[in-house]
Amino acid sequence: MGKLWDRTQDADGKSKLNEVDLATLRINAPTLVYLSGFLTNNNRPDYVAGGIKRMEELLKDRTGSEPAPKIYAWSHTSLKNLFNLALYNMRPKTRSSDAGYDLGAGVLMPLVAASFKRNADGSLEGTPVPLEDAKKNLSNVTFFGYSAGSIVAQETFNATMQMMQKIGFAEKDARRALNEVVLVSAGSISRPSKETNRFKTIYLVASNDRIMRMKNWIWGTMGTALRTAFGKYGWRKNSKDLTVRPLSDTSVFISTSVKPELHEIKYDADGKPADKKPIQPLYPAWTLRRSYHELPHYITIDDNNNAFARIALYALTNAITRRGDVAAIDLISPPQQDSHSAEAQAAYRSRIEQALRPAPAAFVQNR
User: Fold this and answer.
1) Do residues 326 and 213 lie in contact, with contact meaning Cβ atoms separated by under 8 Å?
2) Which of 26, 151, 281, 313 has its Cα between 20 and 30 A from that of 32?
3) Pick from 99, 58, 100: which is nearest to 319 by CA?
4) What is the mean pLDDT of residues 201-206?
């Protein structure tokens, strides 16, 4: 099975990676769970630690007076996880791998059921808490799903929906409660058009991302009626224009192209450019090709990098500091705690407003 990890410091100030016992995990404060790409497996602790560090760096000094969230990272069992990705895309409405059930049972179910327990034979124990309590508890959870992690997040939704109904929740109440969880889905390879009333989701998908395009090509050649947000709903291959399109009240699809340069700018505490760091390419150098799928393209805060700049940062900051219900589209607004200048915030707002498109008529708004 996959594993959940956190990172602490020992007495000497050295970083230490710790496996988390899902059976005893209880979340009672704002928490970020990083769901990684397919290369982050149980035998790659360096990748796991790197993922946590990425989230820490992204959120550093960006939440104002709010305490820093607890950050966990998920690792996959092995590369066999790629098979699960294909199975999910075949049955996105119901499919979940073991990872989805493990995360659902360990992270979400204790927040919606008193005395919850998942037995070895798969049977469940627990009593549903009142709906408003479940919503309040789940509002502490934010997922960041990158690449394969975007599908693990959706599998977690499916698995948790099934478990909640098995212990006595009505379907509509289970769904309404899970709407409180926020998911930022970067380099998403799931099925956005099939996921419009789930977690509150911000999809970030580069129009020239070759991994995503490969996924769409595979489903097209298999004859699947893949009428997703891509193509029919405003996505155009290699389009350089930023497009922000609500798919429903709980999901927003954002697309633009990313540059081929394999470097990113790091900033100092005052928000000034401090260093240029290389980006490790996903495709080997001998292929002479770019994947445009690397995580730094999606989480950049450099306005000169690409039009995704600051969107992931703002969505995560707003999710972690949210109080009560928040519309998905509002998650990408500059938060009150933003340290950027008024001019930079105004430029960002203008960029988003110009990119905003109406929701597709094919989608029924979840009101």
Assistant:
1) no
2) 281
3) 58
4) 96
pLDDT of residue 270: 60
pLDDT in tens, 253-278: 999 999 888 888 777 656 666 677 88
pLDDT of residue 94: 93
75: confidence class by pLDDT, cuts 50, 70, 90: very high
- Smallest CA-to-CA distance from 141 within 236, 220, 32, 233 is with 32
Find, among 242, 156, 175, the residue nearest to 205 by Cα.
242
Say how far apart CA 140 and CA 319 lie, in whole Å: 9
Provide the whole-model pTM. Answer: 0.90
Backbone φ, ψ for residue 269 (5° rounding): -65, -20
SS3 content of the chain, % helix, strand, coil (to 5): 35, 20, 45
Secondary structure E strands in the chain: 3-9, 15-20, 31-35, 70-75, 113-118, 124-128, 141-146, 182-186, 200-206, 243-248, 251-256, 263-267, 273-278
Q: Supply the DSSP symbol for 13.
A: S
